[in-house]
Write a structure and sequence with these properties.
heterodimer; A: three-stranded antiparallel β-sheet; B: seven-stranded mixed β-sheet; four-stranded antiparallel β-sheet; 50% strand
C-alpha cells in the first residue's frame, strides 16, 4: 500500500495545457481501471474530477481528461484557468477492498 | 441535499481511544459503500478504511490495521470509525466519503467537511 507517485508541483499559464502523472504498480493502477482524480482547494473537501480512468462525472468541465498506460495514469487540464489552481490527487483501487491515493500535485496558474 | 456530517473528533492522549461518527442524509445510505479518508494539515490525502453496503467487506490501510475498526448502522444511516491505541501520527482531519459502488469500491463522489483528531500528551 505505498502511495502512488505524483509530481509535487506543476504550473502553466492561462490557456495552456498541463498534465499530471500518477505512477503506481501492477497491483493497483496497472491492474484496475478504477483510477479517479480529485481536486482540492484550500480548506475544502476533495471533489472528484475523473472516474474510471477517463470518465468525467456530471458537472465536471470537459477541460479535464484522464488516461492510463501501464502503471501510470495521467490527468490533463486543457485551457488552464485561474480557478484550476488547487491540489490534485489520483486514487486507485488497490485490491482487497482498499484504495491508495497519490502523493498530490499542487497546480499553479502563472 | 446529499450530506455527510462527521463528528466525534477531539484531543486525545496517545494510547487512548476515540470513536468517529458520520451522519448521512439525502440518499439511500444502505445502497452504498462508505469510507474514511484522513489528511494531516498541509499534507496529502490518505485512505483509511472502507466498508461495503451491508458491512460484509471491509478494508484498512496498513497504517491503521488492527487498531481501527470501521462499521455502519444502516438503520441509523451512520458510519463509524473506532480508533484504538491512537498515535501522534494519527493526528489529522478525518473525512467521511460515499462510494458510488455497493459491494465493490469504484470512486468517492460525496465528501463531508471532516472532523479533527489531535493525538497529543
Amino acid at each position: 500500500q505505498s502511495a502512488l507517485t505524483q509530481p509535487a508541483s506543476v504550473s502553466g499559464s492561462p490557456g495552456q495545457s498541463i498534465t499530471i502523472s500518477c505512477t503506481g504498480t501492477s497491483s493497483d493502477v496497472g491492474t484496475y481501471n478504477l483510477v479517479s482524480w480529485y481536486q482540492q482547494h484550500p480548506g475544502k473537501a476533495p471533489k472528484v474530477m475523473i472516474s474510471y480512468v477517463s470518465k468525467r462525472p456530471s458537472g465536471v468541465s470537459n477541460r479535464f481528461s484522464g488516461s492510463k498506460s501501464g502503471n501510470t495514469a495521467s490527468l490533463t487540464i486543457s485551457g488552464l484557468q485561474a480557478e484550476d489552481e488547487a491540489d490534485y490527487y489520483c486514487c486507485s483501487y488497490g485490491g482487497s477492498s482498499t484504495y491508495v491515493f497519490g502523493t498530490g500535485t499542487k497546480v499553479t496558474v502563472l | 441535499e446529499v450530506q455527510l456530517v462527521e463528528s466525534g473528533g477531539g484531543l486525545v492522549q496517545p494510547g487512548r481511544s476515540l470513536r468517529l461518527s458520520c451522519a448521512a442524509s439525502g440518499f439511500t445510505f444502505e445502497n452504498y459503500a462508505m469510507h474514511w479518508v484522513r489528511q494531516v494539515p498541509g499534507k496529502g490525502l490518505e485512505w483509511v478504511s472502507g466498508i461495503s453496503w451491508k458491512g460484509g467487506s471491509t478494508g484498512y490501510a496498513d497504517s491503521v490495521k488492527s487498531r481501527f475498526t470501521i462499521s455502519r448502522d444502516n438503520a441509523k444511516t451512520s458510519l463509524y470509525l473506532q480508533m484504538n491505541s491512537l498515535r501522534t501520527e494519527d493526528t489529522a482531519l478525518y473525512y467521511c466519503a460515499k462510494d458510488i459502488g455497493e459491494v465493490a469500491f469504484y470512486y468517492m463522489d460525496v465528501w463531508g467537511k471532516g472532523t479533527t483528531v489531535s493525538v497529543s500528551s
